[in-house]
Design brief:
It holds the Pfam family Flavodoxin_1. By secondary structure, the protein is of the alpha/beta class. 36% of the residues lie in helices and 15% in strands. The radius of gyration is 14 Å and the shape is globular. It starts with a strand and ends in a 6-residue tail after the last helix.
Length: 125
């Protein structure tokens, strides 16, 4: 069983987070990371776990209350498409619009990916 991480990134921060999440997943299952423009139009049956992520763009000043809803909105749209969610949405933080990532976020993303794979109810192949 494989995992696929699909990301969108304007300034490169989400790309780094996506790669760190894939690194964490790869400790327990095969994991591939692709930019959304290169993502397959259909998710094959070999993909058991799909992780999607992108920057928060709400066209307003960022504050704690504007961060969470963006990730939750993605989760809601995926649910409407019939995707079963196996983990709640997670947010990773930058220090400014272009970055850099807040210190420790790459390691937190790697650990999040690892714990996601560990909690996933499919044995690694
Ligand atoms: C047009 C625009 C709108 C944004 N709106 C928000 C926002 O509402 N809340 C927030 O926390 N960050 C906001 N940001 C900051 C982005 O979240 C930040 O640029 C992003 O995390 C960087 O990721 P990337 O390097 O992958 O593009 C905004 C950035 C842009 C360019």
């Amino acid at each position: 069983m494989d995992a696929l991480v699909i990301y969108e990134s304007m300034y490169g921060n989400t790309k780094k987070i996506a790669e760190a999440v894939a690194e964490g997943l790869a400790t327990r299952m095969r994991a591939e990371v692709v930019e959304v423009g290169s993502a397959p139009p259909q998710i094959g049956k070999e993909i058991a776990l799909l992780v999607v992520g992108g920057p928060t763009h709400a066209f307003s000043m960022s504050r704690a209350s504007t961060r969470q809803p963006a990730a939750h909105a993605v989760a809601r749209r995926l649910r409407r498409l019939g995707v079963r969610s196996v983990a709640p949405a997670e947010s990773f933080y930058v220090t400014d619009i272009r970055g850099a990532l807040v210190e420790g976020e790459l390691e937190r993303a790697r650990q999040w990916g690892e714990s996601l794979a560990a909690s996933f109810p499919v044995p690694a192949s």
